[in-house]
Design a protein that fits this description.
The chain is α/β, with parallel strands linked by helices and 601 residues long. The radius of gyration is 27 Å and the shape is globular. Residues 80-131 form the Glycosyltransferase Maf N-terminal domain.
Length: 601
């Protein structure tokens, strides 16, 4: 950092904006804010794994990005341009260059980015047409014209709450800070999905309790390994299931959730679901399985208030036949905290990388089709590839199961990721396959290139040819692999488009928003009652705040034309900051008093 540059920039802000000047002076950069010079000599910023600008030439790269964005946006000369995210200011400079007549208003929740800019960027040419707003209070009726992608990723939880509040304003989400109990399976393919769901609810600022049933996996395995007689084994597993179900019921009694969110193969007995419903808990189940293969839905679906599935059509007919009414389509998604672009080391690229890769279990249809890539730079990762003939030479690291954090390394390191949906019946490509597997969204979220087999629902979620490439014949896959290995620029274009689509529409936060919206269409009685009990009159708050500018600004960040709940208000207070304002302390005391009073009743 140049002291001279910092003080020069600081003097500019002292003249322009006293509040920002005082904020920057009291803010310091933490050790995880890594600022270093790029090949072009310009500074760039990296926080954790997130690079906020190009590591080669920040100005040039941002100029290209903004040039493409400017082609698509329709902005009149007198219109303000609203931007989310400061980064190190390169994109702001380019927007100002492309739109010299427009005022640019930049919102950044974290003052540390402004401090970084003042320490490392020369702002001598900053114009009065650029206004910087620092802090978490963003008006809900504001529609941004440009989101700085790395800033969006860094502030993902913050933006999830903003989006939730906008939906509250529209009336499609409850104005209540829900308590949600998430229950996952002991193990299996749906196990990581349960943690992604819990993470999504936390990002939405709901009070979330995750019941991790995998802690019982060692006991489950010991029963499987050490009990020889099948009838005794089944009896013990039945007792284990009962124990787990009672454990979840006890957790629900402790937590008193508004909603039970059970993910496929969650060990919940039907009588446990009935007991939870008696206690006013809304129960829903997400069946992220192929209903034709796993049929336990026939015994469990009728007990839940809401049943969400990754298949429609014939499955919906089957659910109707057993008396289920509240069924809804909800495809899987990606968790950008896990499934993300990575900068891999040379060692990681060598270990996980290849021209062609596949990660998944060794189903028959995969063994059959993948034999066409024998002898090529083709790596197979995953389990159940025993007795796969010559393909075994392509199997990596003994066919072990990879945890999610290693899966994303394979995705990032591979030039082409094959994504063939599993099938017990097809010899290669399933001709009438419908649902999309998690890998479809996870690969896109990693900005990794994939070739996926044709699926009935695929075009609803991605633009085929522009955001994703699919194949419907064995020979077509071979041709596509050959073509894209020779055209890396096409790989880059398509994978970037797929990444943008996932961030915009296909994260687990998007899915859980949809789930809560579905439930709120017919509001549960308990939710309505607690919403009424929690209400604080906006009219009275505004009257109290009429002489307090800070409080009025705080209130304006909540949905207009609606009363507020104490929970929602308190959830927006940053308790960890250096100094709380007087109104923040009052709201926190009100919440604490309410909690203690409820205990005493």
């Amino acid at each position: 950092m140049s002291r001279g540059l910092f003080h020069k920039n600081l003097s500019l802000f002292k003249k322009r904006e006293k509040r920002l000047f005082e904020l920057v002076v009291s803010t310091h950069l933490p050790s995880n804010f890594h600022i270093f010079n790029t090949k072009s000599g310009e500074p760039t910023l990296k926080v954790g794994e997130i690079s906020f600008h190009s590591l080669k030439s920040p100005s040039k790269t941002e100029k290209e990005n903004i040039k493409e964005w400017a082609k698509k946006i329709n902005i009149s000369p007198n219109q303000d341009i609203f931007v989310f995210g400061l980064g190190l200011f390169y994109h702001i400079e380019q927007i100002a260059s492309f739109f010299p007549e427009n005022k640019i208003v930049v919102y950044e929740p974290d003052p540390r980015f402004l401090r970084a800019i003042l320490e490392y960027r020369d702002l001598s040419d900053i114009t009065d047409k650029i206004e910087i707003k620092i802090g978490s209070l963003i008006p809900l009726d504001l529609d941004f014209h440009y989101f700085h992608p790395p800033s969006l990723r860094f502030h993902s939880k913050f933006m999830s709450v903003i989006r939730k509040n906008k939906k509250i304003k529209k009336g499609v989400l409850p104005p209540l800070r829900l308590k949600i109990l998430v229950v996952g399976p002991i193990y299996g393919g749906s196990f990581p999905i349960a943690s992604y769901v819990a993470n999504a609810f936390k990002k939405m600022n709901y009070q979330t309790e995750y019941v991790d049933c995998s802690i019982f996996k060692p006991l489950y395995e010991k029963i499987q390994e050490n009990v020889l007689k099948e009838e005794n084994k089944l009896e013990l597993l039945k007792y284990l299931n009962y124990l787990l179900s009672q454990y979840c019921l006890a957790k629900a009694a402790d937590f008193s959730p508004h909603l039970l969110m059970a993910v496929a193969q969650a060990p919940l007995l039907n009588q446990t679901i009935e007991e939870m419903k008696k206690n006013g808990i809304v129960t829903c189940f997400w069946f992220v399985e192929n209903y034709k293969i796993l049929t336990y839905w026939k015994n469990t679906a009728p007990y839940y208030d809401f049943y969400f599935t990754i298949q429609r059509d014939k499955f919906f007919e089957e659910l109707e036949n057993i008396g289920v009414k509240n069924y809804h389509y909800l495809p899987v998604a990606a968790d950008p905290d896990i499934h993300r672009p990575l900068e891999l080391s040379i060692e990681e690229k060598k270990r996980y990388g290849s021209q062609i890769s596949f990660l998944g279990a060794g189903y028959y249809n995969r063994r059959k089709l993948f034999s066409r890539f024998l002898g090529m730079d083709f790596k197979i990762w995953g389990t159940e590839w025993e007795n796969s003939g010559p393909l075994i030479k392509h199997l990596q690291e003994g066919g072990r199961r990879l945890p999610p954090e290693e899966c994303v390394k394979v995705y990032n390191a591979s030039k082409i990721n094959l994504n063939l949906h599993s099938s017990f019946t097809a010899k290669g490509i399933e001709k009438d396959g419908d649902f999309l597997n998690p890998r479809t969204f996870e690969l896109a979220s990693c900005q990794a290139f994939q070739l996926v087999d044709s699926r009935r629902y695929l075009s609803e979620h991605f633009a085929i040819g522009d955001e994703i490439i699919c194949f419907s014949e064995d020979e077509q896959l071979v041709s596509l692999v050959d073509y894209y290995l020779k055209n890396p620029q096409e790989i880059k274009r398509i994978s970037e488009n797929a990444y943008k689509r996932v961030q915009k529409e296909h994260t687990y936060v998007h899915r859980m928003e949809g789930l809560i919206e579905t439930i709120w269409k017919k509001p549960p009685l308990r939710w309505i009652k607690e919403t009424e009990d929690e209400k604080i009159s906006r009219e009275k708050l505004i009257a109290v705040a009429s002489k307090d500018k800070d409080l009025m600004h705080f209130i304006s960040s909540f949905p207009l034309d609606a009363d507020l709940s104490l929970d929602e208000i308190v959830s927006q207070i940053d308790i960890g900051k250096y100094e709380l304002k007087e109104y923040e302390i009052i709201f926190l005391l009100m919440k604490e008093f309410k909690k203690e009073f409820s205990k005493a009743l």
